[in-house]
Input
Amino acid sequence: MALKKTKTVFFCTECGGESPVWAGKCPHCSSWNTMVEELVEKTSKVPTVDGIVARIEAVSLTDVVSESGERISTQIKEFDRVLGGGAFKGSIILIGGQPGIGKSTLMIQAAMNMAASGLNVLYATGEESPGQVADRARRVGNPTNNLKLLPTTDLAGVEKKIETDKYQILIVDSIQTLHTNELSSAAGSVSQVRQCASSLVNMAKPRGLTVFVIGHVTKEGSIAGPKVLEHLVDAVLSFEGDSFHQFRLLRASKNRFGSTSELGVFEMKERGLSEVADASGYFLQRDGGLGAGSAVAAIMEGTRPFLVEIQALTSTTHYGFPQRRATGFDSGRLAMLLAVLERRCGIELGNQDVYVNIAGGFNVADPGADMAVCLAIASSRLERPLIKDTALSGEVGLGGEIRPVAGIDRRLAESGNLGFTNLACAREKKENTEAKFRFSTLSAAINGLLVKKGEEWLS
Ligand code: TYD
Ligand code: MG
Output
């Protein structure tokens, strides 16, 4: 019997140089730790006709039939929303996140839902024993018969199961524990992760099998493993949150079948993850008036408006060099806003430590939060609170001007829903919002929105 011959060589991820053996330093470009093992298979010659490569015809775009395949619902609305309305049949989806964030919990919940809706689901786990998975499943839902567990770390084992039994869904927990015997490197290494993922893709596509692959992300955010397979999969979702807060956010950084701007919000509870459908006010922790140093920003995450409280504290510097710290907000952006406050609004901050915190642990990237950050800092520095029930939405430019942001009507509507009846935003040429306050400069906003000393809070 002829044995299938496979050969591996080592490639440098920097220069692409090849070497038959592993080396710490690339013999071609002298980079360190860049050699990864790759599988090279001897391929048969390309079929030729009279020495010319057999023709592949180009087709007109209008003649191509649409692949409008089915969507499979996970029966978790927030999950489906991020996927763009459910998982596309035959697609491969990567779910990345730090260890302990709840990836397995999310997937077992989705797996049970999909099984309950009549699909055959295979949950391949190399990470935990079947007992552990079953315990978790019973804790968060009701397992059904057509959800099967496969405790294995061997890719060939998964492949065999997929071939012999009819499954519509495969879940791999996790890609870092899977390995193929064709490579000698350890499970979790870059080459193993890549090889296993591309085998999964080859397995899934022709069968119309939908695959969810879990991948761990390191603390630094560099996805050791998953990063190298982002281009192989159809969608990359990341599951984030922090260990001090119960909420978890699911977002897509790549999605071939939907948008990447949707955000799914969950809360980790005693019995698994529960959806937070009404999330816009979820990150606001207090009712009523806020003290000096706080401002509420109406921000957008994709197409969803959220209200978040921004807190700032300024205090006189004691160590010569002022400290500037931001939690949940970009510190480079903070430095810029501080310069604008100082130069354009005359607020002295040179001898002040400035701390900015987004309450509730939310991470804000929307520049529409600029105005609220500036107002919170000014409010703390001047010890004057903001007018009651005010939410702010506006980008701040280097000239101290307030710029309009997208989706102002949705921000306005959501602020109103949550009782923030005074929305402050940029003054536009074409006034098409019903916002109560409109400013063209930051200094006008500071003058207009901070309560004067000795005055009662306006309502
Ligand atoms: P897990 O899904 O195992 O995380 P991952 O697969 O991303 O590593 O979830 C881990 C944490 O979630 C664990 O520390 C406990 C918590 N948890 C709950 O709070 N409630 C629950 O019902 C479950 C199943 C887990
Ligand atoms: Mg897990």
